[in-house]
Amino acid sequence: MNSKHQYVELNDGHFIPGWGFGTYKPQEVPNSKTIEAIKIAIEAFFRHIDCAYVYQVEEEVGLAVRSKIADGTVKREDIFYTSKDWPSPSGCPT
């Protein structure tokens, strides 16, 4: 994702990738699969990782991102991590 047209400009002048890799998964899928999926997404040039507290995979996402930083695939400043936080469990979608 090199060209500016694949990014969205934020009101502070920074750019965020227009495509994000979503981290939602069904409950029957083990969280450990998230680590593998995020690593593959980063290798496939996703730089925007979209998550939410309710998904309960934030730790796994962090482990995967740190792993790809450690192996030199990306720098921390290359990754745009977004998350959603609903005000209460009753406000979460199911």
Please explain how this structure is put together:
The chain has 94 residues and is an alpha/beta fold. The chain has one domain (4-86). Helix content is 27%, strand content 19%. It has helices spanning 32-43, 58-70; strands spanning 7-9, 15-17, 21-22, 48-52, 80-84. The strands form 2 sheets. Strands 3-4-5 form a 3-stranded parallel beta sheet, with no helix packed on it. Strands 1-2 form a two-stranded antiparallel sheet. Strand 1 and strand 2 form a beta hairpin. Helix 1 (32-43) packs across helix 2 (58-70). The longest helix has 13 residues, at 58-70. The radius of gyration is 14 Å and the shape is globular. Residues 20-84 form the NADP-dependent oxidoreductase domain. GO terms for molecular function: oxidoreductase activity. Keywords: NADP, Oxidoreductase. This is NADP-dependent oxidoreductase domain-containing protein. Pfam families: Aldo_ket_red (PF00248).
